[in-house]
Each structure stands twice: as C-alpha cells, then as structure tokens.
From TrEMBL:
Entry GO MF terms: dioxygenase activity; nitronate monooxygenase activity
Signal peptide: none
Record-given protein name: Probable nitronate monooxygenase
Cell membrane keyword on record: no
UniProt entry tagged with the keyword Transmembrane helix: no
Role this protein plays: Nitronate monooxygenase that uses molecular oxygen to catalyze the oxidative denitrification of alkyl nitronates. Acts on propionate 3-nitronate (P3N), the presumed physiological substrate. Probably functions in the detoxification of P3N, a metabolic poison produced by plants and fungi as a defense mechanism.
Keywords carried by this UniProt record: Dioxygenase, Flavoprotein, FMN, Oxidoreductase
Species: Mahella australiensis (strain DSM 15567 / CIP 107919 / 50-1 BON)
Length: 370
C-alpha cells in the first residue's frame, strides 16, 4: 500500500515524513533540501543560525537574520520544488524577527517548539507560510487553538505532538520522565486529534496531527498511520546521513552511542533534554563548569549567572566536531544507529518498509474479517 501524502493546507508532501528541526546548526539547508528532494518536509533550525557570519558574536541578532535568509535561499536553490520549513524555539529572544524574516523569504512552514507560540499568527496570518506548533499534550494544543482562535481568528495548519523519546529539549518534567513508560506519544496524539475536532469544524479545515519522538523504522511509521494520524516527524535518524549539516565527528558520536550513554540533562534553557553522555556533561554534573558571561542573550529562559555553561556555544562546538567543549543532543533510539547513509537511502528504506508493514496489517485485517 502506498504511503499517504501529507497535506498541510495547500502544501502536499509526497511522503508523510517531516525531518525535525535540529539546533544548533545540525539541520540547515543541506539536510533540509535533501529531505525535501525525496518528497518529505525538510526543516532548517533557526537557533543561532547566523553562526557562520563573521560578526556573529558581536551582532547576534542581525547576523541571525542574515544567516537565516542565506540558509533559506540555499535550501530553495538545492530543492526548488521541495517543501522547506523553519524550526524556531518559542523561548528565543529573536523569535518574532526570525519568523518575520522567514516569511519574507517565502518559507513554507514555521514549526514552533519549546513553549507555546501564542503570537506566531501575528507574523504568519494572511501569508502563504503555514504555522505549526509543536506540543507535548492535548492541553497545550487546545490552549494554542483557543488563543489563536480568539485573538487572530485562525487555527494551526498542523500540530506536531512530540513525545518523551525525542532528542533535544523535552516538553516533560523530570518527574514525568521518571515514569516514561506511562507516556505514549501516539495516545497523546490521538487525544490531540479528538480535541481538534471543534476547531476543524469551526474553520472547515483538516488540522493534520504528526507524531514525533522515537519513530525509528517503517513499522513505527505504519503503526502511526494505521491509527489515523497524518504523519511522523523524525530527527535522530537524519543526523546519521551524509547530508546532515553537522561535522562527521558529531555523526560518529551517534554511530558509537550505546544505550547506557543516553542521559537526561537539565539544560540552561530551563527544560530537561536528552543527550549523549560525554566528559563535558560529566564535568557539568560534577559542578566543574563555572557560570559564564553571556554573549548572545539568545533565550528568554536562560539565566547566565546561574548557568554552568553557554548552551549556544556548547551546541555550536559540538556541531563543529569539538565534543570536548560541547555535547550532542539525541533521541532515545540513537544507540540503534550503526552507520551513516544518504538521505535517499534512508528515506527509501523507511518508505519501503512502512509500505510493506501497511500491507501486512491490511492482510491481517482481511483474514480476521473473512
Ligand atoms: C540533535 C537534535 C537537536 C534538536 N533540536 C531541536 C530544536 O532546535 N528545536 C526543536 O523544536 N526540536 C529539536 N529537536 C527535536 C527534533 O526536532 C524532533 O522532534 C525529535 O528529536 C524527534 O524524535 P527522534 O529524534 O526520536 O526522531 C532536536 C533533536 C535532536 C536529535
């Protein structure tokens, strides 16, 4: 059975796979355009996206806008017909100006995570850019819908529901994560879907629900689709690709990671994150790192006086391959990765195995009904 397409408003992705945005500098134009060229949705990370600009440290905000426009233009050049999105963290101090710059560049979709993007429609309403919040609960999805409906007379164009197996910052408290087995992202996504019905009726539009966090292979994709959900967002697997924008050493940290290396950290962003343990994180845990002087003022939620390190610099160092002075965020399934492949190879494998799994499910249903 052919995989269904993923429709977000007038945008139609040939395959229902979104490559999750990965900061800092892990998913830029290289990865995003490769995914878009294979029929998925490629996503550029907007976090500290101006890091290649010569005056990045001196003029963080201006160089972020410049860097972002450059990445969007490159992605369009490499994938003229593909769907390209931008990922922004609601906690970023320059969220609104980056969103505005992206809309001006004609970005197809803005995905907004790490907080509730209550004001995103101020930038996207009336434009061709789709607005897609990333949430971890039905409560958050409903809050956003009610707020957007009341204030802007719009609702999201899709919703990504991110579960606790995701990489990077998580929308769950340490306490909730103590009982991680009790949290099923697909159940939460179904709950979100149910709660969206009144908004879909009011606006006479379908709001696709996409599942993120721990989706690893074709069976996972088939299971999500068979439940009536619209697609998946995957990130960890896309790191171990030739086209991922991070240094080879970052990718090899994925290939070499073992199950016991995957840990939770308390990030300066104020959220729990999932990462691959290394000496840098061990030093942080032992209190060896000292509070830093902030150069960027990049996050509303970071208190530099209390933070043992600068998360922007740590993630930038890691993406350049300097894992002595940084660390790699990763999803819970990273230990299953054993090689680096091309995006084409990965997507072909995912699509073929998901289609085979859907066929198997259809056969099973048929034999049970005969
Ligand atoms: C290295 C890394 C960096 C990430 N950075 C971001 C980010 O900047 N913004 C965001 O919304 N999500 C971020 N994520 C989450 C992903 O976009 C995605 O939703 C999630 O990791 C999906 O789970 P998976 O990695 O198990 O496929 C990151 C994930 C990874 C692995």
């Amino acid at each position: 059975m052919k995989l269904p397409k993923l429709r977000i408003g007038n945008l139609i992705a040939r395959i229902p796979i979104i490559q999750g945005g990965m900061g800092v500098g892990i998913s830029l134009s290289g990865l995003a355009s490769a995914v878009a060229n294979e029929g998925g949705i490629g996503v550029i990370s907007g976090t500290a996206v101006g890091f290649r600009e010569p005056d990045f440290r001196l003029h963080y905000r201006a160089s972020s806008i410049k860097g972002l426009k450059e990445e969007i233009r490159k992605a369009r050049e490499y994938s003229p017909d593909g769907i390209i999105g931008l990922n922004l963290l609601s906690a970023m101090t320059n969220f609104a100006e980056l969103a505005k710059a992206a809309v001006e560049e004609g970005i197809d979709i803005i995905f907004a995570g790490a907080g509730l993007p209550m004001r995103l429609p101020e930038v996207t309403k009336g434009t061709d850019t789709k607005a897609v919040p990333i949430v971890s609960s039905a409560r958050a999805a409903v809050l956003i819908c009610k707020n957007w409906d009341n204030k802007y007379s719009v609702v999201p164009d899709a919703i990504v529901v991110e579960g606790p197996l995701a990489g990077g910052h998580l929308g769950y408290s340490a306490k909730q994560l103590d009982n991680i087995d009790d949290i099923d992202v697909e159940d939460i996504a179904l709950d979100v879907k149910k709660n969206l019905v009144p908004f879909e009726q009011k606006y006479d539009k379908h709001i696709p629900v996409v599942v993120a966090g721990g989706i690893y292979d074709g069976n996972d994709i088939a299971r999500v689709l068979a439940k009536g959900l619209d697609g998946v967002q995957m990130a960890t697997r896309f790191v171990a690709t030739d086209e991922c924008d991070a240094d080879e050493r970052f990718k090899m940290a994925y290939v070499n990671a073992k199950k016991e290396d995957i840990i939770y950290i308390q990030s300066p962003v104020g959220l729990v994150g999932r990462a691959i343990r290394n000496k840098f994180l061990d030093d942080v845990a032992m209190g060896i790192k000292k509070p830093i002087r902030c150069q960027y003022n990049c996050l509303k939620t970071c208190d530099p006086k209390a933070s043992p390190y600068c998360i922007a610099d740590a993630l930038l160092n890691a993406r350049q391959g300097d894992l002595d002075n940084g660390f790699a965020f990763a999803g819970a399934n990273v230990y299953r990765i054993d090689r680096i492949v091309s995006v084409k190879e990965l997507i072909n494998e995912l699509v073929e195995s998901a289609e085979a799994a859907l066929d198997e499910m259809a056969k099973l249903i048929e034999s049970n009904t005969v």
